[in-house]
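Lab notebook, page 48
Experiment: co-folding of the full assembly
Goal: obtain a model of how the components sit together before planning crosslinking
Operator: M.T.
Materials (sequences as entered):
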Amino acid sequence: MALSPKKILMGLLPGLVLGSFLAHAELVEFEIVIREHRFEPSVVEIPAGQKIKLLIHNLDATAEEFESYELRREKIIAGGSTATIYIGPLRAGEYPFFGEFHADTAQGRLIAR
Amino acid sequence: MYAAAIIVFREVLEAALVVSIVLAASRGIQRRGAAIVVGAIVGLCGAALVAFFAEAIAASVEGIGQELFNAAVLSIAVFMLAWHNIWMAKHARRMVSGLQAIGSRVQSGEQPLYVLGILVAVALLREGSEVVLFLYGVAASGSNAATLLTGGLSGLAVGILFGAAIYFGLLRIPTRHLFKATGWMILLLAAGMASQAVRYLMQAGVLPDQMPLWNSSSILPPDSVIGQFMHAFAGYEATPAPLQLAVYVATLGLIALGMRTIGRQSAESSARFKH
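Observation: model returned without errors.
Model output:
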């Protein structure tokens, strides 16, 4: 049976989770609202080279999937709930994201400066 | 309507690939049908449950429950794929050594059937819950729900047809080559899933995020059809983090090593048996 790094990882997980909570305590938070399948604001400026915490409040009744290839992020946000996503540190630049379930309207981008 | 079809097809693609490759790779294993059916039922019920409790799962563990859940499901799939491949390595050698007749009798059901069942279940569970959430949202949205629902269901049908095409395509390969081919495919699936699990742990902030190693989105855009397919099939990412690549290579290497070691052992023992 192959002892893959995943197995080792799962063993380390509880400690890592605890450690990460402590590390997250002082992160800068940014908030986005999803309303009628649109992001408000649709453009968010964040500091480059710094890890941030992004809170996304889905005010719609139905679920949305926050997705970004550039940010390597993918998260289902149930209707009426708030999702927490950790992002960065990022190089300066633009990072588009979209709501996969309503990609015609749900478009936005992060700008790291 | 097209948009809905494409969204559902994208979600179904990965599950369809995994299930069809696993089905082809387990060809001839006795009583596998029951394991697969039970796995599918458990997976689909699980998908509905995960969709229903999506909010609770996401809110758990300080808001990173969904990432931990996805990483755990992917890890289970990686282990089951590894297990399957290593088991098959043992069998392929025996088949070649001529100790047992080549054919369905060879796979006399020694393979623990629950490995197959779990693989089918986890493949349907993760992607299925997203399809359920999307279709539920569409159904609840009123206005043009019927059109969107038709689109979604046709995406589902195309995804299933795609899986069936891969399965029957693979079955056209002669048995010995078939297992070699599915072995390679399963290696790639497993490595891709391990790298995805790392990405979820980075998203959760459990692992540190890293600057990507490269950006190949201009060569193979991740949202293109081929990009999507390669993501589902071999874990392609346009901007992979170094740790993702490391885990990808390590998973490939460890499973291949396991297959080689077990394969050689069984070859030696069967050679001894012969003389």
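Interpretation: The mean pLDDT of chain A is 85.
Next step: discuss with group before ordering constructs.
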